[in-house]
Amino acid sequence: MADDTSSSAFLTDLVSSGHLLPLGADGVYGHGSAFEAIVEGVQQAITERGADQRATSVRLPPVYPAADFARTGYPVSFPHLGGAVFTFRGSEQWCRSSSADAADEAEQDGWTASLGPSDLVLVPAACQPVYALQRGALPAGGRVLDVLAQCFRREPSSDPFRMQTFRQREYVYLGDAAGARTHLDTWRARGVELLREIGLAASPSAASDPFFGRAGRLLAANQRDAGAKTELVVPVPATGTEGKPTSWAVASCNHHGDHFGVSFGISSGGAPAHTACVGFGLERLTLALFGTHGMDPVRWPVSVRKALFL
Ligand code: ZN
What we know:
Strand content: 25-35%
Strand order of the largest sheet: 3-8-9-15-12-11-10
Order of helices and strands: HEEHEEHHEHHEEEEHEHEEHEEEHH
Largest sheet: 7 strands, mixed
Number of helices: 11
Radius of gyration: 21 Å
CATH superfamily of the largest domain: Bira Bifunctional Protein, Domain 2
Bound molecules: zinc ion
Shape: globular
Helix content: 25-40%
CATH topology of the largest domain: BirA Bifunctional Protein, domain 2
CATH class of the largest domain: Alpha Beta
């Protein structure tokens, strides 16, 4: 965990350099042009690493159907992180009687009170909406998807590394158990190599998801014991205490077993498909680069700039 002083100094630097544009809610930012150029470079570096995967490209909107969200099991495992879209339920009469002045506070309260849940939720992790697209039998050898999505998790914090809204780029495998294991082994090694090439001292670390409640702690322990989740963590010199950098996870490798295969009726060789995903947090990775190489990308090491196509 970063201490408040170092993380707030890091945030101040990011904001004064124009990289993060604070929108007035914790963990919700716009990005400046240099920040986006780095995100673009990171994406290109990932695309290069994945060129041999013959992956099907899937670019997603930030919302998807609540029914599929429920089928993934996410609302039971992580009720504290999810978010849903609420929309206007008022009558036309309400619109006619309301003031045209949108800045009027009472009118805004009235609008808020007229909202109700829609059939849409916010995407909590890039791979979550893709399983519903894969129902039925997979081809022999399985399938790899290259997925990009804007994600949301309800974790408000003033620490820039804990954003509520961020992008994830994932390579998702669907097929048999051996293929899922190979996918994770391959991408764990590739991820570490890629991160080291851009000057981040990455190492794999066994991890567990932040499951909710007492039963959740058991799930987390099971996940750790089964080696189902590994994070790629990097020490970030701009954060930490007493000269000791805090390490942040910038990518995660997840083995889901046949959970999504069973839930969504996806099969491989006549049995429920096994799935695995490797996800890169694009904002976190970019923050780790600023926190390691400094606020001005022009001064970054030549090898890093080259690897990021800058
Ligand atoms: Zn995933």
